Amino acid sequence: MELDLRLPEWLKNSGHRGVHNTKRLMRSFGLSTVCEEARCPNVGECFSRPTAAFMILGSKCTRNCGFCSVASAAPDPPDLEEPARVAMAAKEMGLRYVVITSVTRDDLYDGGAGHFAATVSHIRRCLPQAKVEILTPDFRGDLNSLEVVIHSKPDVFNHNIETVPRLYPSVRPHADYTRSLFLLEYVKKTSPGIYTKSGLMLGLGEEINEVIKVLKDLRSAGCDLLTIGQYLRPSKMQLPVVEYISPDMFESLRITALSLGFRFVASAPQVRSSMNAEEMYYN
Question: In the chain, what are the domains?
Answer without folding.
Answer: 2-282 (3.20.20.70)
